[in-house]
Design a protein that fits this description.
It contains 9 helices and 13 strands. With 289 residues, it is an alpha/beta fold. The protein has 2 domains: 196 residues, L-asparaginase, N-terminal domain (Rossmann fold); 82 residues, no CATH class. It has a 6-stranded mixed sheet with strand order 2-1-3-4-5-6. The protein has a 3-stranded parallel sheet with strand order 9-10-13. It has a two-stranded antiparallel ribbon with strand order 7-8. Strand 7 and strand 8 form a beta hairpin. Helix 4 packs across helix 5 and helix 8 runs parallel beside helix 9. It is globular, with a radius of gyration of 20 Å. The N terminus is likely disordered.
């Protein structure tokens, strides 16, 4: 079984294929720029990988269902960590899209991209792309070699959006973890969670927080108290449980290895406040190494 089939329910795959109108109806251009989505590391691990290691063709081998949606054309513009994205590469992206959009057989475009500068690329293209055809950017938080890599599913669903009639004239979009974002308001909000992309809003009901327990520890706070406080106001959308070795941010350890009692209290706070029962937007992620 390929990676996508293991992640995407059959009914959902069928619905996307039905919306596409079947194979051979139009072409989707996949513009590959590198990033974690084509990263390679130790089997099963989510850290210590090399971004931009696979080509676009190699990435597509894990998502054969794409070819039932449309004719797929891959264009390898670069293969980098998105921290290394340059203005010249942005111009090449915009130029490629504008030129190929003139082809009546092309329905839309998907750009595979690293998450660190995804929002900047989206904003630039939203200003410089001169077509109403859908342009959808996607990526992943886990490398291709990780357990439950999120890249194949994001790519499949981004292609579904790119060939959807409803996406025409909507400007540049980002598809990430089952959500669509407009280029003007999108931002990266987590360096760990698979729901790492979010967007600004003026609706207070949609404003919430992601709690990183290791960061709470570094700030001198009790993570269990922070969990309880946020949940009392219905504002805890996602949780990343981990431990901190006390050196600096982003050097966290597996959950429970530093303070087992503190770890237990965090789980207890989530259970007693019925985390997940109110349809929180995100989910629970526990760091293990």
């Amino acid at each position: 079984m390929n990676k996508l089939a293991a992640l995407l329910p059959p009914k959902r795959m069928q619905a996307c294929a039905a919306d596409a109108g079947g194979p051979g109806r139009g072409r989707i251009g996949i513009l590959a720029t590198g990033g974690t989505i084509v990263g390679v590391g130790a089997a099963g691990k989510t850290t210590g990988y090399r971004p931009g290691a696979l080509t676009a063709e190699e990435l597509l081998r894990d998502v054969p269902e794409l070819f039932s949606l449309a004719e797929i054309e891959t264009i390898q513009l670069c293969n980098i960590n998105s921290d290394d994205m340059t203005a010249e590469m942005w111009l090449a992206l915009a130029r490629t899209i504008n030129e190929r959009a003139a082809d009546p057989d092309v329905l839309g475009f998907v750009i595979t991209h690293g998450t660190d500068t995804m929002e900047e690329t989206a904003y630039f293209l939203n200003l410089t792309v001169k077509t109403a055809k859908p342009v959808v950017i996607t990526g992943s938080m886990r490398p291709a070699t990780a357990i439950s890599a999120d890249g194949p599913l994001n790519l499949y669903e981004a292609v579904c959006v790119a060939r959807s009639r409803e996406a025409i004239g909507q400007g540049v979009l980002i598809w990430f973890s089952d959500r669509i974002y407009a280029a003007r308001s999108v931002t990266k909000t987590s360096t760990y969670h698979v729901m790492a992309i979010s967007a600004a809003t003026i609706d207070p009901k949609r404003v919430g927080g992601n709690l990183e327990s290791a960061h709470a520890v570094l700030a001198g706070l009790d993570p269990a108290n922070e969990i309880g406080f946020a949940m009392a106001f219905g504002k805890l959308f996602t949780v990343h449980l981990n431990d901190q070795n006390g050196i600096r941010y982003d050097q966290d350890k597996s959950f429970g290895v530093e303070n087992l009692r503190q770890a237990f209290n965090q789980v207890k706070a989530l259970v007693e406040n019925h985390y997940g029962s109110r349809g929180e937007d995100g989910g629970l992620e526990v760091k293990t190494v």
